[in-house]
Batch of 4 targets.
Target 1
Amino acid sequence: QVQLVESGGGLVQAGGSLRLSCAASGRTIDSYTMAWFRQAPGKEREFVAGMSWNSGRTDYADSVKGRFTISRDNAKNTVYLQMNSLKPEDTAVYYCAAVNGYYTGRYYGSYDYWGQGTQVTVSS
């Protein structure tokens, strides 16, 4: 089992930046594909960014491409999401997700492990 704990959310003005962290425990994540999803009130959970187990592949939703960067530090068993140029429409609860093995894409059902989420609020 892998336990995931997100942190780093908060309230920020439009144009600002935040860095989310996802600390994993239970197992090392060096063989896991990692991803970030988000869910705004009244909306479905949507893919934000993903990274393969060896960092060889990254994938971003069009809405965040060029503004968000996913990275991982396997030695620290942690994944990050650097969010720049934030917009009010980025407001959501952000979730970290993991699945063992090769990159499986953007479908949330492909991921086996989830964190509890961290709230990001961007004010206009």
Target 2
Amino acid sequence: QVQLVESGGGLVQAGGSLRLSCAASGRTFSMYKISWFRQAPGKDRESAASISGNGVAKYYADSVKGRFTISRDNAKNTVYLQMNSLQPEDTAVYYCAARHRASQRLSGEYDFWGQGTQVTVVS
């Protein structure tokens, strides 16, 4: 079992920055792909960024590419999402999710989810 705890959300002015953290329990953190999702009020959840277990492969949604950077520190069991040049449309609850490399779930599904952290960007 893996528990994920997000932190770092808050209120920020447009153009500002925030760094989200996703801290995980467990001893096999490097075996998990970690993704950041976000869900704005009245909208579907969308994937923002993801990172492979060894940190080599990264994915960004077009909407955040060039502004967000995902990274991980496996020694600290933590994944980060550095968010720069934030815009009001980035306002959402941000969730991190973990998928084990040997997961039996369908492609695109995740094994564990965090509770989320609110990011609010005001103009």
Target 3
Amino acid sequence: QVQLMESGGGSVQAGGSLRLSCVVSGYTSSDWCVTWFRQNPGKEREAVATIDSDGSTNYDDSVRGRFTISQDKAKNTLYLQMNNLKPEDTAMYYCAADDLGGGSWYVPADFRYWGQGTQVTVSS
């Protein structure tokens, strides 16, 4: 059974930093992609950053240069380092994993496995 668990959310002032963690267990395929998504009530879930089993990364333009996605293979953990946070970064953040198989890293429907989310609140 694949499980993802996020942690590291919290409340910070604009300009501050947070590091989110996503621990993945039970995922046995050598091909994978993990994307961090975020969502606010009443809005669609949007992709923030992604990393795949080849180590390739990609970012939404809104966070490029401020957020960094990384992995620790030994700990089966993915990280999202978020710097220079802005109030518009406020959202529930989720990590999602799958092998995609032709899907897109930024499409929520292409991911089968999701964590429960961690809240990030940035005040001005």
Target 4
Amino acid sequence: VQLQASGGGLVQAGGSMRLSCAVSGRTVRSGATAWFRQAPGKGREFVAGFKGGSAYTADSVKGRFSISRDNAKNMVYLQMNNLNSEDTAVYYCARGDRIITSTVMLEGGYDYWGQGTQVTVSS
């Protein structure tokens, strides 16, 4: 199983960015595929994810970030709007085969991780 995250970079505050996660070895239609992020000096936190057909979004980004997927391409996307400096982090996509609803937001349940892509928001 491999996950390849891409689309990060430098963006001004208030701007938008879309991250992509290419998944191989598992279908994104089942299991759980999610985005996490880790800001400098902080732990990794859940951003958004799919478990089966249901989407989940962290309260901290709700209304600004949205997750989508392309089943045919086996891709998961994270659309980020109205970015601010607190969104600066390395963003990771992750895959879990045995995630249950109550653990979707917990990083410990995810078996496979991509390499991460840096998102830097300048003020």
